[in-house]
Design goal:
The complex is a heterodimer of chains A (78) and B (193). Chain A has a domain of 53 residues. Chain A has three helices and no strands. The longest helix of chain A has 24 residues. Chain A is extended and about 55 Å long. With 78 residues, chain A is an all-alpha fold. Chain B has 193 residues and is mainly α. Helices cover 77% and strands 0% of the residues of chain B. Chain B contains eight helices and no strands. Chain B is globular and about 50 Å long. Classes of the chains: A mainly alpha (78), B mainly alpha (193). Chains A and B meet through helix 1, helix 2 and helix 3 of A and helix 1, helix 2, helix 3, helix 4 and helix 6 of B.
């Protein structure tokens, strides 16, 4: 499923609720859903079979340096 | 800060469950993701103002290009440090956190670097979830969106919204959207080098 479908539906419902003068607090449901999603992401990660320390090390170096590169450019130029 | 501990606990617990029990949760991850995206959409709909979108427009359009260039440069430096052919580093960096696309695309040419591309970009997503709440204390939350790459329109959007605020959510979504549109074109191009 495309992420645009739930996003658009949510936007529409939120807009309709706002128009009708209602403003429910979404903090608790968002927190619960976020923690559940992170748990399932962890499960997916744990299931990946890592073949050797090198693979893990190389992946970590790539993750850290790509984040650092993006952040640095955003901070300096952006 | 208390919520960050809950995030860490949730992630650790998930990794341990996945590693030692390998349960079949089906598409529970995707379902939760869509629930979250729906709730975020609802939150935006409840508070959306046209003026806010006009305000984030310029920054939101420049930021993804800076993210992409920075990510590619980071990938290039990583490949030089690890003694890998630069082409693979450029490709892994150009993935911008989109592990489910980067891994399989690179694996068409090299299974080993496909695995590095998958894991490296997956780690980027996980690190964003863990670091973004801390990073926003030192860096502008809008600029810190860059760390999430293409994932800021879906998987890391909830954590960005939670710690960066509603205004940052709009920047993050546009940022992720632009990168999601660019990466599938750029990555295969790099792989043909």
């Amino acid at each position: 499923m495309n992420v645009f479908i739930p996003l658009t539906l949510g936007l529409l419902l939120g807009y309709l609720l706002r128009r009708s003068g209602k403003k429910p607090s979404l903090e608790a449901p968002v927190s619960v859903a976020l923690l559940a999603m992170i748990f399932f992401l962890g499960v997916k990660t744990g299931e990946v079979q890592v073949n050797g320390l090198w693979l893990l090390l190389a992946s970590t170096v790539f993750a850290v340096l790509t984040i650092a590169g993006s952040l640095l450019l955003a901070e300096v130029v952006g | 800060m208390r919520f960050l501990y809950l995030v860490l606990t949730s992630l650790t617990l998930g990794v341990l469950v996945g590693r030692f029990l390998s349960p079949n949760f089906g598409n529970a991850y995707e379902v939760m993701l869509y629930v979250l995206i729906f709730l975020i959409g609802m939150d935006l709909g409840l508070s959306f103002r046209k003026e806010e979108l006009m305000k984030v427009g310029r920054k939101a359009l420049l930021l993804p290009f800076l993210t992409l260039i920075g990510s590619i440069l980071g990938g290039l430096i990583a490949s030089l440090l690890l003694g890998i052919e630069p082409k693979w580093g450029l490709a892994i960096g150009a993935g911008c956190g989109w592990y489910s696309l980067t891994g399989p695309l690179i694996a068409q040419y090299s299974p080993l670097y496909g695995a590095v591309g998958f894991l490296g970009n997956l780690m980027r997503e996980i690190l964003t979830i863990l670091i973004y709440p801390i990073a926003t204390k030192r860096i502008d939350p809008k600029k810190a969106v860059a760390m999430g790459g293409a994932t800021t329109m879906d998987t890391t959007l909830p954590i960005i919204t939670k710690f960066g605020g509603r205004e940052v959510a709009l920047v993050a979504f546009v940022h992720g959207f632009v990168l999601t549109a660019l990466v599938p074109f750029l990555l295969p191009l790099i792989l043909t080098l």
